[in-house]
Fold this protein.
Amino acid sequence: MPIARTFTLGSLRCHAIDAGTIWLDGGAMFGVVPKPLWAKRIVPDAKNRIRLGMRCLLIEHPDGLVLIDSGLGNKEDPKFHEVYGLENAGPDGRTRLEAGLAELGHRPEDVKWLINTHLHFDHAGGNTWVERDEAGVAVGGERLTFPNATYVTQWGELEYARHTNERTRATYLDPNFEPVAEAGKWKLLRGDVEILPGIAARVTPGHVPNHQSLIVTSGGDTLIFLADVMPTSHHLPLPWIMGYDVEPLRTLESKRKIHNIAEDEGWWFFFEHDADVIMGRLGEGERGPALAEVVRVDGAGFEGV
């Protein structure tokens, strides 16, 4: 199965890149939703974990290649991989993200814009990388994965990542973002702004206070890269909110605002963590908002995109 799936949005050629899988606790992923409900949709393993994707979006933009989020990277040790059931290895000690870029004929050096929705390790871990010897031992310090890119996130998100507490420090790891600062590569946003023509940041707080989603518009069509405001297609209902969210009631309002706009305009919803569904167009179902024209990992639906 290919690592990257290609589709067009208006005049933009886009690629959904499978950056690997991660297994997280099902109860944490669905918060107050009872297990008998969420387990009908995603069956957990013996450790109550569910399989999730780490999907990035590459856009061939007139201003250069744009990559949204960077997966986990290659810096974490075997214990970390065991705890989270990580499967993201690529050839030559790198990751599936780099392998996906290569499959498309690109190198990390070709990326001109790297946009982080937020700086948790499964979204920004691939910002940097370490070289490893034949035994898998890291050699030297962290390097920028995309040395020619401008790295973009919200100013408030970087500040939040730098001032952690007992709950947040396990997900914000300095090697994922401080080398970017040391290299002077950050472009820090303040609120809802257009980053490039047709690519805009929309602050969607709740998961963390300065979480942002990205809205891509071309040729009268619109896609929203939801990230953790709606990590999977199963989080489409308003009250299905992660237990990981630090401000769940703000997540609720962020989701409500997205639904109100996206349903009227028929936006594509792009899911970063759904292991089976890449994206779908939002419409109205029998019980509220529902996905139509669903595009799946197995290739179903791509002929309609």
User: Anything to note?
Assistant: Helices lie at 26-30, 35-38, 78-84, 96-103, 121-124, 155-162, 178-182, 248-265.
